[in-house]
Design brief:
Largest sheet: 2 strands, antiparallel
Structural class: mainly alpha
Number of strands: 2
CATH topology: Hypothetical Protein Ta1238, Chain: A
Pathway: Cofactor biosynthesis; adenosylcobalamin biosynthesis; adenosylcobalamin from cob(II)yrinate a,c-diamide: step 2/7
Enzyme class: transferase
Radius of gyration: 18 Å
EC number: 2.5.1.17
CATH class: Mainly Alpha
Keywords: ATP-binding, Cobalamin biosynthesis, Nucleotide-binding, Transferase
Pfam family, one: Cob_adeno_trans
Length: 189
């Protein structure tokens, strides 16, 4: 089976319901999600199977859901009945965030992205996720989109932040505060 089709040689690509230029906002949105999914796979490769079994399972589920988000954003003429992402994945992410946050020390200031290789990779996931969300919002100003997919991306970047901090905690590597940061995080009482 050949993986090349030559159908994109003139700068266009197929989306669900038509063809668009390869730099179309829709392609930028789901292409950035594809990029994020690749970085999630890279992060998983840094995770020890025993120490991070829970995180690896969560990340694999996230990879599946990122394909769903990309698919939903690829619809030229989508409707709610055809979308794959509903409210449940974002709600589940909230419970996962809470679970990882319970392991993390309290912070009041911004932290520098980094620490262990896994934590660093998860911070890359966080920033690419934010870009994917921005691209999806840009698309939403010109086309109908599944807002549940955008909500999911918003929550997912928070997940990556919490998971990156947990990766450092479990490997006994402290976060490094940004030294000129004011107190920006408030602790829940």
């Amino acid at each position: 089976m050949a993986i090349y089709t030559r159908t994109g040689d003139q700068g266009q690509t197929s989306v669900i319901g038509g063809r668009v230029h390869k730099d179309d906002e829709r392609v930028e949105a789901y292409g950035t999600i594809d990029e994020l999914n690749s970085f999630v796979g890279l992060a998983m490769s840094y995770a020890d199977d025993t120490l991070f079994a829970d995180l690896k399972a969560d990340l694999e589920q996230i990879q599946q859901e990122l394909f769903d988000c990309g698919s939903d954003l690829a619809f030229v003429r989508g409707n709610e009945g055809s979308f794959k992402v509903g409210s449940e994945p974002a709600e589940r992410l909230e419970s996962w965030i809470d679970r990882y946050q319970a392991e993390n020390p309290v912070i009041e200031k911004f932290i520098l992205p980094g620490g262990t290789a896994l934590s660093s990779a998860l911070h890359v996931c966080r920033t690419v996720c934010r870009r994917a969300e921005r691209r999806a919002v840009t698309l939403s100003r010109k086309a109908d989109v599944n807002w549940e997919a955008i909500k999911y991306l918003n929550r997912l970047s928070d997940f990556f932040f919490a998971a990156a901090r947990t990766a450092n905690v479990r490997q006994n590597t402290p976060d490094v505060e940004y030294i000129r940061s004011r107190k920006v995080f408030r602790n829940k009482s």
